[in-house]
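Deviations from the work plan: none for this task. Representative record:
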Amino acid sequence: MAKIEFRHVSKRFGAVEVIPDMDLVIEDGEFVALLGPSGCGKSTSLFMLAGIYLPSGGELLFDGHVVNEVEARDRNVGIVFQSYALYPHMSVRDNILFPLRFKKTPREEALARVKAAADLVRVAELLDRRPSELSGGQQQRVALARALVKKPQLLLLDEPLSNLDASLRLSMRTEIKALHEQLGVTTVLVTHDQIEATTMADRIICMRAGRIEQVGTPDDLYLRPLSLFVAGFIGSPPINFIAGKAEGGTLTVNRTRFPVEGASGAVTVGLRPEHLSFGETGFPGRIAQIEPMGREILYVVETGMGAVRVLEQGSSAGHAIGKQVKVDFRPENSLVFETERQKLVAGAHIRATA
Amino acid sequence: MATQAAPTMTMAASGPVVDWDALAARARGARRTKAVVLYSFLIAVSLPIILPYFWLVAIAFSAKTGVAETAVLWRSMAVVVPAVVGFWLAAALAQTRRQLWIGFAAVAMIAIFAFALLVGPDLHLGNFIFLWEPDFASVVRSRIGEVRGAVQFPNVWHAFGNSILIAGAQTAIVVTVASLAAYYLSRFQFPGRSSMLRSLLVLHAFPVLTLIVPMFLMLYWIGLLDTLFGVILVLVAFELPFAIFIMKGFFDAVPWDIEMSALTDGASRRQAFVSVVLPQVRNGILAVAVFTFIRGWEEYIFVFTFLIRNSNWTMSLYMYWVRDDVMGVDYGVVSAVGVFYLVPSLILYVAAQRYLMQMSVGGVKG
Ligand SMILES: Nc1ncnc2c1ncn2[C@@H]1O[C@H](COP(=O)(O)OP(=O)(O)OP(=O)(O)O)[C@@H](O)[C@H]1O
Ligand SMILES: [Mg+2]
């Protein structure tokens, strides 16, 4: 188990600066998720932790010791690659055994540990097969067993669930989380799927173009996103953004006006679909589209400030396309961002009606 | 087909008069016609390649000193051609796998019987005299009463050993160097990498003969003229570029991930190369090894130019001198040497066929 620290870490590939300056602390035993869109440098950060890439600048610390120059094989890091990277010419047993080969572990003990790791991820009956004879989910478990068998001080998961089907993904999510609770190993999960991050991780590190946008618990990122980017990236269906101009306590969007507190100038208001509801009061609109999503129903409502997504519980009875409705929300659920700097204006709110 | 299917479908709707069996039979017939045409074409094209080999073997086992008769050839052809046609008819006509095997067995039996009857009495091993009689040239000549002027041949096993040594050593060096170089070219970025890749192909484009004089002079100055080692070095130099290029294609196809995974699993770069990367390119190595070996085994121009003493002769030189010396006297011995020379390559090809096929699939990409 280890505490991980990035101190002004940067990474360049030739002239391309992928990570300009990264500062981050991951506590011992924590489960964090690196979340961000494709190409934002998640894998690069992970590979620096694993020792595959050498940082171009700054310091990387394990338990307070600088490990920049420490070779991958001496770091005792377990990693599950996006492609699983199982060794195709070896049986599952030899795959899981591989990390122990270089540790001079006695054969008896090594086999026992392989057995234990295989049991842990429930692949014990597959030990004699080749990776090509396994399903995607089974390969993923084998990769996990191989990463765990060496009792790593740090477990790195690079989009481990992205190749699985929806139901398998759901169960593996629960399993990986349970595994972390059982083993307590510091774990970094890389994902571009916000649901994966919010359901599994203690803390989420939201990245964008090589920079950390926000670090916090899933609730922090969901309820108090510090930037437009985080607000837009977290949440499904995505948040509604409404751009307008605030002046003297009034926000003007097209020709609609809202009372606003604590902000002025060009602002963008963020309203989550699940925080909106149909009511007696609120701003008027017309239902343009109805998308049943199981327990909830997503309505697209044409209003004076453009299309707004509203997520409502219960049946759609009584809400037909074309119906005139009023959309309401609680002021404290509204988020106000400065359009220019894309940052949250702390304490600013709007109201649905005067 | 589509236009024919439409009326049958309307018929099916009106009543149970569709003759599915007839439709199936027609499709089967069309398939069979196609197969017949294809096989006829393939056989016609391959005859000019296969016939000389067949004749080579037939002559080697049947010709007699001083007799230039071709009756055996024609008789054996009279067995083989009908046999091929028979096999092919059996394949075309058989309805089930069982019938196919029965047909093949029947044709094979008849062919073997006819062969034993027509050709069998003429077969003998006398032409392989060179295997046990180093001075066979004199023996052969003495049969027609002319002994003078025979070339002093070394023991054929000596030439055989030399050929094995040259081909084997060349293969070992080429495979080792090409694997390491190709891995480096595939995985590491360094100044001049792309121009090196391009020059690899240019090197291969040189016609060998243009370089033979400078090579001769170089070997002379180094003092490796008329040594096996000198020839091995030259062959390695000529074979390496293409081998590197082929191997690079195989290494490029190995994903980075498994190598990185091996590194984090505690392997050193070298251990990762040996235990994870090399096994992935095993087929490539085998293919390159087989081709290089056969190239060395067939080598003629360099050995002819750079090897002088007859104790350094390889099989190709041996073949050349046998042809030169006894050709007019005894076709049989020349053919027998040819067959003996052919067998190792043939065995190697058959044994490695599976891997050679993958070379085109394994892909060569820049
Ligand atoms: N070896 C490399 N050489 C040059 N550029 C690279 C290299 N590896 C990554 N990059 C670049 O760095 C950026 C970040 O890559 P990275 O693989 O870390 O993205 P990611 O966040 O993991 O994306 P994804 O979700 O698609 O895996 C990309 O723009 C990529 O093109
Ligand atoms: Mg990635």
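The first strand of chain A starts at residue 4 and ends at 13.
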